[in-house]
Amino acid sequence: MNPIKFKNIQDLIDEDFDLIFPLEIRRKSATHFTPIKIAKAAAEFLATEPGIRILDVGSGAGKFCIVGALITNAHFTGVEQRKSLCDCSNEIANKYGLENVSFLNANMNRVKFSDFGAFYLFNPFFENLSPESAIDQKVFLDDELYLEYSDYVQKQLSTMPVGTRVVTYHSSGPEIPNTYKLKDSLFKTHLKFWIKQS
Questions:
Q1: pTM as predicted
Q2: What does the pLDDT look like over 81-95, one tens digit per residue?
Q3: Inter-axis angle of helices 63-71 and 83-95, nearest 10
Q4: CA separation (Å) from 106 to 36, 60, 70, 83?
Q5: How far apart are CA 148 and CA 154, in angstroms?
Q6: Distance CA 165, CA 170 (A)
Q7: Which CATH number fits domain 9-188: 3.20.20.150, 3.40.50.1110, 2.40.30.20, 3.40.50.150?
Q8: Strand pairing class (118-121; 165-169)
Q9: 21: how many CB neighbours lie within 10 A of its CB?
């Protein structure tokens, strides 16, 4: 049975699901956190086998990881540099007994991508270009960080084996190496599915 006491995760709407978050976080969900329909599509593409480790870069309050953990047998890890959001994510995972999800309070450039098999990127670095649209001002933001972080992700992804899957949402794609091929796009091309070809 679903650890979150909803009738059916497949029929769940964002307004109901978001009630698991504190009010101050819930207010930011529509802008900053992955909608359920997007999370489902992304998780199903990335979860190619039971237990595969999926990394969400800039996981926020953990919504994508939690949805993915509920609907697949993959293990989802979110990395988030805002401690308050990471603490919230871990509290929710513990409260609902989710054993296939975890959250790291760290900058993503401290994470070895080789520890994972698939990746999700909801435009995690854009706030460095547009600080006024950031979740908050609790972390240092700078336009040069956008390039630095995108470059780090690109280099990490380039070392992954052929067949590695990546999903981007609302991203122009500077972090995707040219060895990855776009396999599909949904939701007016905002959601893109990539597989490493060479």
A1: 0.92
A2: 999 999 999 999 999
A3: 20
A4: 25, 12, 24, 8
A5: 10
A6: 17
A7: 3.40.50.150
A8: parallel
A9: 22
